[in-house]
Amino acid sequence: MNVQINQACEKFEELKTRGGSDTNELDQLKMSVKKLKSQIPSKLKIHYDDDSKPHRKPWFDGSINSSSGNYQVDVNKAGNLHSFYNDPNTIGAALPGLLGLPLELDDCLKFFLIFPAMATIKKRIMIYWWIGRHTEEEIVLWKTAEDIVNDILDELTAKGFIEPIYKNCGSVVHSYRIPPCIRSALEIKRDWCTSDYFQHGCLTCWKRCIVNVDAAIIDGRHEIIFKGDTNLKVVYLGRWQNSVTHHIEVPDIKILNALKNMKQLRFLSLRGISLITEFPQFISQLTNLMILDLKACHNLEVVPNWIGLLKNLTHLDISECYLLDHMPKGLGALSNLQVLKGFIIGESKDKKSCTMDDLTKLSKLQKLSISTSMKEFPTDLQLRHLQRLKSLQKLKISWSGCILRDKTDDLPKQAQLFSKRTTLTRSFTEQHDPELPLSLELPSSLQKLELECFPEIDTPSWLRSANLKNLKKLYIRGGLLCKLDEIVATTVEMLQLKYLSDFQMRWMDLRRLFPKLIYLEKVECRGLNSFPCDQNGVWMREYKIGNGIDEKCGGRSY
Prior knowledge:
By secondary structure, the chain is of the alpha/beta class. The protein contains 13 helices and 24 strands. The termini are far apart. It comes from Camellia lanceoleosa.
């Protein structure tokens, strides 16, 4: 660890001296430090910085945008926001529209009031909160919960009551915030009505929902709020802020045991909370739980097999839990699971580890993210199992550590071994599971594919397959990939290429591969400097003129 600490210190001094604007390098350094912190035993930790204060000043990071073009915001020394847009006439004009809102739209707006002024709230949080508060009977049969929430947010946006935040310069909305004048009008309206908010320190309760607004440490002082209402449906103790540096910790996991009596709980978030080394046992008793968010719990070491008892679970996020090395077989029993993030495929031969074969039992799975230490993933057999996930729409694969580990491999010898393994795999498949698909392809239902740290230089065969007839989004971030060729996924509309230092391709060749492309984003791909992108690395096709295409980017047409 001393070596790693010294490397981090040297990297920090280098960045400070160079004074560069490379946020990717800084983010990598932050992640390295966070991993180091996660390895320090809790008894040896010293809590002396602002991060660990129970009541700290608001964090003005990516969660709170203080430089909007629509209004001017001043952040004073006390850490308070003051808006110059709170004009009484503007507020008065907004009130009549707010008073006549349907209940669902009104509740959605009130949810924004829980958070600090100017905070940007991710769409994911809004969707999970909505699912947590509504029963299946309240969800329209021909619509998904995500569709319903999108409709609500679109209507509020059209009325000007919330403001969408677009991802980079694209057309995808990932967050929302409430304009200051609307917030002020809502607070006036709330004063007229019966207030159903209850605040306990940095935790806020509202309509069977608890949200950790700004508590850095969750300890015995919060037990009273956990024991107050056993009918809570949503408990969001984790990090909602966009910044990964926002620190939360639970010194004693037993404090959370007070949640075991909440039999109606449907959504539990412990996202980004430190010092949680194991799944709290009480979670096994929350049989109505639908959403469990444990992303970035860096101290988490094991996912217990009893997770299979949560039969109603539809969303499970255990991504960025770096101390996990395998998944339990119990995951295969979650028959209602629709979203699984952070599934791990390693070198373990343990029969108790969950495999791709076990995942094929999850017939409702729509979104899957996989982290693997296997450079050869997916093998022929794993590809065949993936094809059996007929409902899968979004797939992300991250090859963590494969590039560094295999940098000095003997490539000819490796190719020979791979060929031998492939032959054995095919033979095993034919003998033991004749019902498996014979073709080596990804599921035809895929609409979005993300490849992170891809360890090969050539386009994989499963990406050249004609099976990807519904693929709309292709994101490739980091790795050794040098080119894209012979891709048959002509339906791709959005392409993202990031941190591909050896990637080479001509603009016309890329347009030939992706004739329906409407959005391209490239970041730190020096071999693509000739691409007609703006200063943000974005190209967008806007509209057609006659038989030609007018492409606009950075004020120029191509």
